[in-house]
Design a protein that fits this description.
Layout: E1 4-13, E2 16-26, E3 31-36, H1 42-49, E4 57-62, E5 65-66, H2 71-75, E6 78-81, H3 93-103, H4 109-119, H5 135-146, E7 153-157, H6 165-182, E8 185-189, H7 193-199, E9 202-207, E10 210-215, H8 217-224, H9 229-237
Helix pairs in contact: 8-9
The chain binds adenosine-5'-triphosphate.
The site of adenosine-5'-triphosphate has 11 residues, from strand 2 and helix 1.
Length: 245
C-alpha cells in the first residue's frame, strides 16, 4: 500500500489555480521531493495532505485512509515540520515536546523525549525557552517535534533552511536513519537541490500548480542533459528546458 496516493488534486483561490490536476504516489520507506519556484503550489499541496485545506476536486489517501472522510486516523500517524510554524515560545524545549507528545498520546513519552534529545543534539537545550533559541536550534526542536509520535509519514517544508552545513548534514543523516529503520515515508519540499539529490528517490517538479516533470534525480539530470539537479530546476523554472529526450 502506498503511504500517499493523490489523484487529480485541484485547488483554486479565486482566479488563482494554485494546484491543478496533481497526481502522485509515495511508497513506504522512500523520500519524495516536491520542487518548484515560489508560488508553484507546494505549500498548498502539503496543506491539503494535512487536511488544513479542502481540495476543490481530487482524492487523497494517506496510509490507506481517505482524507475527505477519515482524516483523523491518518493524522495520528503523520507529522509535519515547517520553519513557518512557530513553537510555543514561552515553553521550554522539554515542555514543548511534552505538549506535542500528549497531543499524540505518545506511550513512554519521557523516554521518547530523551531519545529525540540525543538524536537531535538537544540535551543542553531542554530547559531553555523555545523563544530564546537561535533559528537553527529552533529548527532542530521542530524536527524532534515532527518525530515525537513515530510517524509513518513526515511532511517537511524546507527542513534544513536555517541550519549550518554541518548541522544540516547531521539532521539529514538522522532523517535517513529514521526512515530506513521505521519504513516511514517523507515528502520533502526543499529549495536545496543537493539535499534533494541526496535524500529523494523521486522528485516532482511543480510549476504553476501542475507537476511538469518527475523522475529520479539522476534520471532527470540525464534527461535534461544537465550537470546537476539545480540546473534542471533552473531550466524548468525559466522555461528554457530542452530535454535530451
Ligand atoms: N490563502 C491563499 N489565498 C490566496 N492565494 C493563495 C493562498 N495560498 C496560496 N495562494 C496562491 O496559490 C499559489 C501557490 O502558492 P503556494 O504557497 O502553494 O506556493 P509554494 O510552491 O509553496 O511557494 P513558496 O516556495 O513561495 O513557498 C500562489 O500563486 C499563491 O499566491
Amino acid at each position: 500500500m502506498d503511504t500517499i496516493n493523490v489523484e487529480n488534486l485541484t485547488k483554486s483561490f479565486g482566479a488563482v489555480r494554485a494546484v491543478e490536476g496533481v497526481s502522485f504516489r509515495v511508497a513506504p520507506g522512500t523520500t519524495c521531493g516536491l520542487l518548484g519556484g515560489n508560488g508553484a503550489g507546494k505549500t498548498t499541496t502539503i496543506s491539503m495532505l494535512l487536511g488544513i485545506l479542502a481540495p476543490d476536486a481530487g482524492a487523497i489517501r494517506v496510509l490507506g485512509h481517505d482524507m475527505a472522510r477519515d482524516r483523523f486516523a491518518a493524522l495520528a500517524r503523520m507529522n509535519y515540520s515547517s520553519p513557518y510554524v512557530a513553537l510555543p515560545m514561552r515553553l521550554t524545549v522539554e515542555e514543548n515536546l511534552r505538549v506535542y507528545g500528549h497531543l499524540y498520546n505518545v506511550p513512554q513519552l519521557e523516554r521518547r523525549i530523551r531519545e529525540l534529545a540525543r538524536d537531535f543534539d538537544l540535551e543542553a537545550l531542554l530547559r531553555r525557552k523555545a523563544g530564546a533559541l537561535s533559528a537553527g536550534q529552533k529548527t532542530r526542536v521542530a524536527l524532534a517535534k515532527a518525530l515525537i509520535n513515530r510517524p509513518a509519514l513526515i511532511l517537511l517544508d524546507e527542513p534544513t533552511a536555517s541550519l549550518d552545513p554541518d548541522t544540516a548534514d547531521y539532521v539529514r543523516t538522522g532523517l535517513e536513519r529514521y526512515r530506513d529503520e521505521t519504513g516511514a515515508a517523507i515528502l520533502l519540499a526543499s529549495h536545496n537541490m543537493a539535499e534533494v539529490e541526496r535524500l529523494c528517490a523521486e522528485v516532482l517538479m511543480m510549476k504553476g500548480g501542475r507537476i511538469v516533470d518527475r523522475g529520479t534525480p539522476a534520471g532527470l539530470i540525464a534527461r535534461y542533459g544537465r550537470g546537476d539537479l539545480e540546473q534542471v530546476f533552473l531550466a524548468i523554472a525559466r522555461g528554457t528546458e530542452s530535454r535530451a529526450s
